[in-house]
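task queued by scheduler; priority normal; single chain, no ligands, no partner chains; default sampling; output format set to C-alpha cells
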Amino acid sequence: MRTPRTIAVVAHQRKSLGGGLDELRRLLTGRGVENLIWHEVPKSRKAPKRVRQVIRDGADLLVVWGGDGMVQRTLDVLAREKGGGRIPVAIMPAGTGNLLAGNLGIPEDLAKAVEIAFTGEHRRLDLGRIAGEHFAVMAGVGFDGAMIKDADGGLKDRLGKLSYVWTGLRHVNGEAPRVKIEVDGTAWFDDEASCVLIGNVGTITGGIRAFDDASPDDGWLDVGVATAQNALQWARALGTMAVTRSDHSPFVRMTRARRVDVELGSKLEYELDGGARSRTKKFSAKVVPSAVRVCVPAEKPMAGDATAAKT
C-alpha cells in the first residue's frame, strides 16, 4: 500500500495514548508523508467542523485520536458530507471505552495503531442513523441511556471504565416503562422493558458481548431488549451473557432489522456510541450500508464477522 500523500489528524486534546500527540506526529512524519494537516480540539463536539475542513482539503487519510465519542462525531460527518465516504479513517484508540476500535481489532498501542493506518485494509462499514445522526457501535435507551448520561463528563474522566459499573448500580432498580418496537414495519415487542439496545457490533459498554452475531458490514442492525428490573435479574442476564449467548437469557430478546421503530411509555435519555443525547419518547433507527471506510488489521477477521477475509 502506498503512503498517503496528505494525512489529516483530528485529535481530542484531553485524550492520551502511548507517548501522546508528540509521538503520533513523530510516527506519522517518519513514514515520508508529503503533507500533514493537524487539528486539535478541546472536546469531541468541536470535531465536526475540523472534519469538514479535512474533506475540503482533500486528505488521503484521516487519523482520528480519541474515544468512541470522537470517532462517532467524525464518522457522522464523513457519512453526511459529499466525498466523505472516500476517505479512509485510522482510529487511534485514546479514549475510555474504545469500543469500535476493540471490535475492529485495533489495539490500544500507538505504534501498532499507526502501523494499521498505513498497512491495514480499508473496510467499508455500515452505520446506524437516528434523527439524522450516525452511530458506529450502538444506540441505547432506558437503563443504558441513563447509565451513560450519569457516567459522562468528570466521573468518566476520574474512574474510566469503572464509571459505567458505578452508575449502572444506581439504575438497576429503576422503573421499567412500556415499550413498543417494530422491526422493518412488523410489530415485534410490546411490554415493559428496562433497556433497548440497537447494535452495529458485538461488544458494547463494559466489555459485554451483547450481540453474538453482529457484524459492522452485514447490512443489518442487531436489536436487543432487556426486561430485567432488579439487581438479581440483571445479574442473571449478565451471567448468561458471560458464559453463553445473550439470547439464551429469559430476560433478553434479540432480533435484527434494517429499520427499528421504538415508542416509549415515558421520555428517557438515549445514547449514541457512549455519548448521552436528549430525552425522547419515540425514535427510529435505520442502517446505512457501507457508509464509511475504516483502516483495520490486514487479513484479520473483525469481532463477530466470520466473513471478514472477503473484501
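post-processing summary
- The first helix runs from residue 20 to 29.
- The two ends are 15 Å apart (CA to CA).
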